[in-house]
């Protein structure tokens, strides 16, 4: 059997071939990797890649849904919450989000079931208790709302938003003294008097409301909203006194018109709507906005008007 001898040249040639082969393989591997790791071009592709890399996709969809909810895109928000539940059936935030959307859409039964489901999933969670408490407050079910909000604030005493909601619920139920400490801690003393004054105003309790607005202005002279409503209530009282004087001199017909004109006490639903639209603590998220004061119209009614003419004049002022 012949023996092959490897000369120095043979060894060098073999090593050179091996290096060329390895270099080629490495080059091909780099090309394949580069092709596979090519960054996405379109927005849809970028979103798809980002979703695949998420560790908690349910939280992504919940956050996205909350943003859509705040922007008023409720249909898209519902889709996001549903996808979040598909990723994680135990997502309490997704359940609460869908419940809020049902509440806004007027599906009260479905909303209540959703809130109760969230409460069953995590009965000690203060945000869950606060959410269902706010739901009952919106329905004027104070006997259910106040205990839930009270339990929530015990578990999260530093949460000013929950404390504010509790104070508003207590004041709306008529417990002004109990509401005051919570509102002071949530928004400040002047704002607390303002909120209670606003509720009293919408109930037609002008004397008590005037005192609350006055106290708010004394505590914070630059409080323009409180000053506006204080002036409005005082004008309202003056107009009522003037109307009473004109009616009494006009005889029985004027008296009947005065009775028809007298402002009726608003329903509990009207009071709640005023609270949800007009009394928000400054700097607290997910809470109602304070309404901006309308233009200040200081024009006084012409003298010598009877009750019917006075009523027509006031209606024209509001247009």
UniProtKB/TrEMBL annotation:
Coiled coil: none annotated. Gene3D superfamilies: Tetratricopeptide repeat domain. Residues 272-319 are annotated as: Disordered. Residues 1-28 form the signal peptide. SMART domains: TPR. TPR repeats lie at residues 58-91, 92-125, 126-159, 190-223. Keywords: Repeat, Signal, TPR repeat. InterPro entries: CellSynth/LPSAsmb/PSIAsmb (IPR051012), TPR-like_helical_dom_sf (IPR011990), TPR_rpt (IPR019734). SUPFAM superfamilies: TPR-like (SSF48452). It comes from the Bacteria. PANTHER family: LIPOPOLYSACCHARIDE ASSEMBLY PROTEIN B, TPR REPEAT-CONTAINING PROTEIN PA4667. This is TPR repeat-containing protein YrrB. It comes from Gimesia chilikensis.
